[in-house]
Amino acid sequence: MERSFESWEKEVIRCIRCGSCQNVCPVFRELQAESTVARGRVKLIRGVITKDLSLTEGFISKMSLCLMCKACVANCPSGVKVDKLVEAARKEIVDQKGLSPLKKLIFRLILKNRWVFDTGMSTGRILQKLVFRPGPGGQGMLPRMPLGIDQRRLLSPLAPKPLKTMYPQVVKVLNPRLRVVFFTGCMINYIYTDTGRAVINVLNRLGIDVVIPKLQNCCGTPVRMNGDYETAREMARANIDVLLKEKADGVVVACGTCGLALKEEYAELLQDEPRYAERAKLLGKMVKDFTELVVSLGDFKENIGELPLKVTYHDPCHLVRGLKVKEQPREIIKQIPGVKFLEMKNPDTCCGSGGSFSLTHYELSMKINNRKVEDILQTGAEVVVTGCSACRMHILDGLHRQEVGMGVMHTAQLLEMAYDAKEGIPKGVNSFSQS
Amino acid sequence: MKPEIIQELIKIVGEENLYTTLEDLYCYTYDASFLKADLKDLAGVAVYPGTVEEISMILTLANREKIPVVPRGAGTNVSGGSVSIGDCIVLVLKRMNKILEIDKKNLIAVVEPGVITGQFQREVEQLGLFYPPDPASLAVSTMGGNVAECAGGPRGVKYGVTRDYILGLEVVLPTGEIMTTGGRTIKNVTGYDMTKLFTGSEGTLCVITKIIVKLIPLPEAKSTMMAVFSEMEQASETVSEIIAGGLVPCSLELLDNIYIKNIEEYAKVGLPVEAGAVLLIEVDGDSEILSKQIGKVEEICRRLGAVQIRVATTKEEAEDLWLARRSAFASVSRVKPTIIGEDATVPRSQIPVAVRRIQEIAAKYNIIIAILGHAGDGNLHATILTDEMDREEAARVEKAIDEIFVLTVELGGSLSGEHGIGRAKSKFITLQTGKIGLEIQRKIKHALDPNNILNPGVMFGA
């Protein structure tokens, strides 16, 4: 039996409307209307359940105004799962009203079908020059024409080749001590291949065989968060099959969002299918963020070269509050000789990206981002390190808008640079891809 | 609400500071109280003015048209004083959020009503100054709301409540006039004390637009301890003894057995689950005298039979002790989905009787009532753990709450220590004010608000 929307009433009544969420909700901070904070959303959802309200355009738009950053959940004295409630509401909207034609096309034709996605992405690489112009200083690119996304939006271009085509299915080392599957996720595969390369290089250096299954798909989170559970389930089942087939010691991710999907959300999504629910749990136990895996191998500290850099770290929402990974990236950064780690104010406040939120609510998402950029600049750091490609793109966009030429990279890239420094491979802060 | 009125309001505050859609207005039908409002209570409009002049224009308009106005800050009110009441104007003061002045020489500050209490405290503390009132919601509550409700908090035992720190106000009267009260001096006896009248008036007499607060020097250090007692009576007696001994802790928090059991189960902080009561005691002041003070408190706790005493010697240890108190709410919210926090306050010496009688009431109606309190000032928070979807139990809960109110007044206490009367307790007000007392308060209300437009229904009922 699939869970009915009405059954969430048990969860909504747990909200005592104390208002603590006002202190942490990034959307509320900008908009200030009571309907834009967690307790307002919960009240609206309750209103639909009790039939005071219905699935009006107004309700749909309020439900879209959530970054899914989980800050309210972590801060809620009663532990109300606001993220699950908003997701349930979005699912109810899709169940009752259907998907918009554009979302249908993206979710059901492209994201779900790996070959369409791959073909589209490789054609897209050529076509993107027609619709995007290069950003200033050769960093990123800006839309040439209205695409339904803001023309000021700095997007990172597609990589010349997807990561999966750059490597063999298994990247082997001599006498491996572990064999792990690398779930790349879409952004690392198609855009930030430099992050993917760093993950592979670092793991190899630590004596780990890295398996990159060609048949892995998008994790499905963008689809699920927009309420299309049917497609999300199909994608989950496909990934579970592909990842479990490899008989590896673990599954490593370099993205908190993908990681959380694999670790916990697949099991919830598939709870009504006993066989897959079990397999999802099995997979869940194997999932580790890149930094978790690295830190668990105490010897990662050996052979680190010196990097004379001032570094700050941004906590991605789904990494810090989803996978609960907070200390490991900092430990890695602090272990690098020469690096001066400068903690920013509110490092775990959302950068405003929220996945597709930044495309549909660009103005608002940049306002949220401006606060993040300000906190970053206050530290005086030269490089922002983070653990999520979406955060990386969004923060880079924010820095670009404020005309700050600062680099943003994944933790894996910083560590790769440090290992390279030891081996005398020249790689200054400006040589890594900033786009 | 008539479209012409909305048009006039748009002219005053601007379109971007006004909300009229169903979904937006639905979110002003609640505050943090247990009071239920539904679609028939939906406001006609919510406005976010930015200046005192705009507020004056809004109230003039509302008074002319006899439209009810419900002032609102962060909506953390726990007595139903800021919920919408049908076709009214919800007046949200959050845009007026500037700290206008912190005057170190005169130890005062001037703030707008939308300033967040906790942020204001951080600002003054950076300058070595202190604004003590600490309601549980201080991370989000507004100064204006705190003044309107006369908010309290754990530090009340030593430092008093909001009222004790308000020197003067600028307000807009229900008829639209702008008025100032009090001033920038500690001593001020010119005319009636309108500042005190407006502080705690729950949005029924005026809209507060500027607040002059008194500050005090920030105490140098704090020292924290926890004492566990097998009986509630011992804990209560300890409280009385500590205060009789001339020691005034800055917090004196009491947890009953239901809380102790649940906190231990939830947070594993090392409390003996069979204990009858836990006292969490904090003293502050000059660092030299602190250890002497905490030593005296410890001695009293021991003499009165504490079975376990933990004194924090470092900041981290103090944090550990506070963890029990801070986990209190989360721990009970896992027992039942609906938590109702009551606010009955009795003279300190009556705490053991009050606790026992509340437990009897809980047994009579077969519901769970846990007690947590600011024991130093007799402010007990009886916490009812229930499930609002269980209609039959909800009816029993309502009866139990009624009995607690009667009990409180019987013991010489107050219907509300710090939460306010609002709409939730208005039917009980005569229990405490008496007929004449209520009549006089009504006359004051009528003198200032002849058309009864400002927060009608609050305090005096409909």
From TrEMBL, chain A:
Which cofactors, by name? [4Fe-4S] cluster
What are the protein's GO molecular function terms? 4 iron, 4 sulfur cluster binding; glycolate dehydrogenase activity; metal ion binding
What does the record note about the cofactor? Binds 2 [4Fe-4S] clusters.
UniProt KW keywords:
4Fe-4S, Electron transport, Iron, Iron-sulfur, Metal-binding, Repeat, Transport
Q: What's its EC?
A: 1.1.99.14
**Organism superkingdom:** Bacteria
Name the chemical reaction catalysed here. Answer: glycolate + A = glyoxylate + AH2; (R)-lactate + A = pyruvate + AH2
Domain 4Fe-4S ferredoxin-type, by residue range, is: 4-36
Q: Where is the signal peptide?
A: none
InterPro entries, alphabetically? Answer: 4Fe4S_Fe-S-bd (IPR017896), 4Fe4S_Fe_S_CS (IPR017900), Cys_rich_dom (IPR004017), Glc_ox_4Fe-4S (IPR012257), Helical_ferredxn (IPR009051)
Tell me the PANTHER family matching this sequence.
Answer: GLYCOLATE OXIDASE IRON-SULFUR SUBUNIT (PTHR32479)
Q: What does this protein do?
A: Component of a complex that catalyzes the oxidation of glycolate to glyoxylate.
Q: What is this protein called?
A: Glycolate oxidase iron-sulfur subunit
Which species is this UniProt entry from?
A: Desulfosporosinus acididurans
UniProtKB/TrEMBL annotation, chain B:
List where the protein spans the membrane. none
GO molecular-function terms, A-Z: FAD binding; oxidoreductase activity
Entry-linked InterPro entries: FAD-bd_oxidored_4_C (IPR004113), FAD-bd_PCMH (IPR016166), FAD-bd_PCMH-like_sf (IPR036318), FAD-bd_PCMH_sub2 (IPR016169), FAD-linked_Oxase-like_C (IPR016164), FAD-linked_OxidoTrans_Type4 (IPR051914), Oxid_FAD_bind_N (IPR006094), Vanillyl_alc_oxidase_C-sub2 (IPR016171)
Cofactors required: FAD
A Pfam family hit: FAD-oxidase_C
- Protein name in UniProt: Putative FAD-linked oxidoreductase
Superkingdom of the source species: Bacteria
**What enzyme category does the UniProt record give?**
oxidoreductase
UniProt lists the family membership as follows:
Belongs to the FAD-binding oxidoreductase/transferase type 4 family.
Which key words are in the record?
Answer: FAD, Flavoprotein, Oxidoreductase
Species source reads Desulfosporosinus acididurans
E.C. designation(s):
1.-.-.-
Domain FAD-binding PCMH-type as annotated: residue spans: 39-218
